[in-house]
Amino acid sequence: MTFLAILPVIAMTVVAAENTRSSMEEEVMETNRANMNWASIYLGEQFARMNNLIYSIQISDELHQYLALNQDAPAASRFDEQKAMFNMLNSVYYSAGNYVFGVELYLKELDTLFTFNSMESRIRSVPDIPAAYHELFEQHKDFTIINDSNDPEKFHMTRSMNRFEDQAQIGAISLEVKWAEFNQTLELLDSRGDYAVYIADSTGSPVYQPNKEIQPSAEALEKLAATKDSSGFIRTAKEYVFYHAIDPSGMRLIKIVPSHVINESALETMKYGLVVGGLATVVSVLLAAFVAWRTSKPIVRLANSMKGIQLIKDKEVVRSGRVDEIGLLEKNLHGMASRIREHIRDNYLMNLEKQTAELKALQSQIHPHFLQNTLQMIGGMVYSQKPADSYKVIRALSEMFRYIVRAPDGLVPLQSELDQLEHYMLIQKQRFGSRLEYKLEIEGGLSDCYIPKLSLQPIVENAFVHGLEKKQGEWKLNIQVVRLDHEVTIRISDNGVGMDQERLAEMQSRLSKLSQQGDRVWSSSTSIGLVNAASRIVMHFGPAYGMNMESGEGQGTSVTVRIPCHTGGEIT
């Protein structure tokens, strides 16, 4: 019987593991398709900006005047035109930004090579085509991207100059660019650190890969070389391969997700399911043996003691018809269990409705508070930062909105809450620059740790509003997450102006009241986000957990949050 009882547990474990794997696979597919699309668009825009620099040289008046210059022209005229060419190259070089290391202009018919970079600006005669331009001219290409043979962190982007009448190649323009310009976009695609993300040529072979520890398999490279689609997905024995064309460079953006990333969650589900099933089998066998041995004597004693119990029943109890002590025990237990279940159900529903109403009220205050502060900060940055910086901030804000809208309103994984906080701090770092020093330290695994949604951000916002923004000089904000057994401590410290002992005593008093059941702290003061976050933690996990504050005038403030770490559901 025990074996038959455990079979459904094993079957449900296998089904749950497969459902987990399928859900994880679908999520990875949808997320990576969307991420590859926007990343390739952004990379294409970066290549387009480089193309625009080359086109600005091709259509410049200085270049056309130099080409039109007669070979017999006076030396003074030739000197003036050459000077004008260097001025034009100088203008292009410094308008490109710090990702362009140099600009070269090769004129084939004049056997002339102009070179301009931060170290030199010169013109020299080259009777033969330079080695860097062989592929362009020998294969009659319009455009090439070739890695620097001396420095793998750079590449040369070269475009041919063609005569309008017969499209003959008369020269070429080359930009020396550092690959690090694309690192930020590639790092966003490699959020876990165990993916292979790289820029490839048209066949899928890596051209630039920041993380070379993870290489694509031979099967993946073979399938990439065979496909001609601009974007899509390829499945191999060990990998999920996503690819997308980068227009107008003719290159591809490749992301390879190992299969173990998707399978590991299913394996965890199966492992724990089998462990629980095995433990349940052992426990049930031992318990059955113990109960069978101990039942005979207590059941007679219990039946005798229950003869005097008279319960008022709402309806007749269906009995087995036995007239011995077991029958009497059955009758009384049915009546007692029925009334106890009714009482528990009534009290549970009342408490559940009360806590649900309180949680909804608290969240309705936290959401506007968060959105108002963040949008005011973003509005100021749009007018003061570069477009690229603004894009990063908007991207971070987009991920924050996605979290607010899509994440459940109750408990969320602690790691998701920390990721949300990273997006918020990215915005703050863009706003305050080197003045703000931020550090996040995590000790211990957080995979089974949950916290009420938007509990940490109000604490960090209070650190800025009440501590750091009133302090002159350098700002420091440290977040330390430490797991010890089944409990997690989150400590958020700043070096702001702190608070006096009277204000600290008031805040500690309000936080301590949260541990009293039924006594919720409601306020309209400036610290409402902090108090509401503490109240939500107490309502979810009970009075043993919550928030504590330490501060000293001129010494900064430290807020410590304690939560349990063994359940995704409510404890209270």
TrEMBL record:
Q: Keywords of this protein's UniProt record, alphabetized?
A: Cell membrane, Kinase, Membrane, Phosphoprotein, Transferase, Two-component regulatory system
Against InterPro entries, the record matches this protein to:
Bact_2-comp_sensor_kinase, HAMP_dom, HATPase_C_sf, HATPase_dom, Sig_transdc_His_kin-like_C, Sig_transdc_His_kin_internal
Membrane topology, as annotated: Multi-pass membrane protein
Q: What is its main location?
A: membrane
Give one Pfam hit by family name.
HATPase_c
Q: Which domain of life is it from?
A: Bacteria
Q: Where are the transmembrane segments?
A: none
Which reaction(s) are listed as its catalytic activity? ATP + protein L-histidine = ADP + protein N-phospho-L-histidine
Q: Where in the cell is it found?
A: Cell membrane
For this protein, the Enzyme Commission number is 2.7.13.3
The coiled-coil regions, if any, are none
- Boundaries of each HAMP domain copy? 293-345
Recorded GO molecular functions are: kinase activity
Family matches, as PANTHER family = SENSOR HISTIDINE KINASE YPDA (PTHR34220:SF7)
The name this protein goes by in its record: histidine kinase
